[in-house]
Amino acid sequence: MGRDGIHSPDDILDAARDVVLERGVSGATTRAIAEAAGAPTGSIYHRFGSRDGVLANMWIRAVQRSQRAYLDAIAVQTDPVEGAVGAALSIFDFARHERKDAQIVVLFRREDLIREAPKGLAEPLRTLNEPVLRAIRQLHDAMSGCPPPSGGALSFDTLLLAVFDLPYGATRRYLVRGNAPPRTIRPALELAIRAVLPPSTIKP
């Protein structure tokens, strides 16, 4: 096997993640990533085409890992409200337990990656959030007719506030400073999420 076969894509993406977090995006050159991975620069170009290809794949992988936790949290619940709460809290838990990937998620804007990424990655980047949005729409449909504490109908935007904006906002300010969110704020976050959603049908 040639030398290029020694270095898996995940090895290179792990190295790129570490370089980005230690040196910033501007410091994540192809040479720096190759050195961190212990790989020849040719293996970077062979697997990802360019530095921008590495960074886009690194971000996609981090987002997909977060999404798996999010969708799994919905899938294990029969009550849509509990599924929504679990999904929202999975963002917090991912930030605590997979801090490096969570930092990568908040560090990049998808629009910037689409503009810079190789053509073959533009469409995967554009459609990356569709599985999660589809799951949230299903939660919204399942909760239709269940009024939130504020009264009226639960709008899709209100559901997004509970299952994405609140946990994302609660974790982002820690992640951008290189820290995991403290576990002590998780109960307060759950209370805030539940305050937006209809009451659960599951008795405490």
From TrEMBL:
<feature type="DNA-binding region" description="H-T-H motif">
    <location>
        <begin position="29"/>
        <end position="48"/>
    </location>
</feature>
<dbReference type="Pfam" id="PF00440">
    <property type="entry name" value="TetR_N"/>
</dbReference>
<keyword id="KW-0238">DNA-binding</keyword>
<dbReference type="InterPro" id="IPR009057">
    <property type="entry name" value="Homeodomain-like_sf"/>
</dbReference>
<dbReference type="InterPro" id="IPR001647">
    <property type="entry name" value="HTH_TetR"/>
</dbReference>
<dbReference type="InterPro" id="IPR050109">
    <property type="entry name" value="HTH-type_TetR-like_transc_reg"/>
</dbReference>
<feature type="domain" description="HTH tetR-type">
    <location>
        <begin position="6"/>
        <end position="66"/>
    </location>
</feature>
<protein>
    <submittedName>
        <fullName>TetR/AcrR family transcriptional regulator</fullName>
    </submittedName>
</protein>
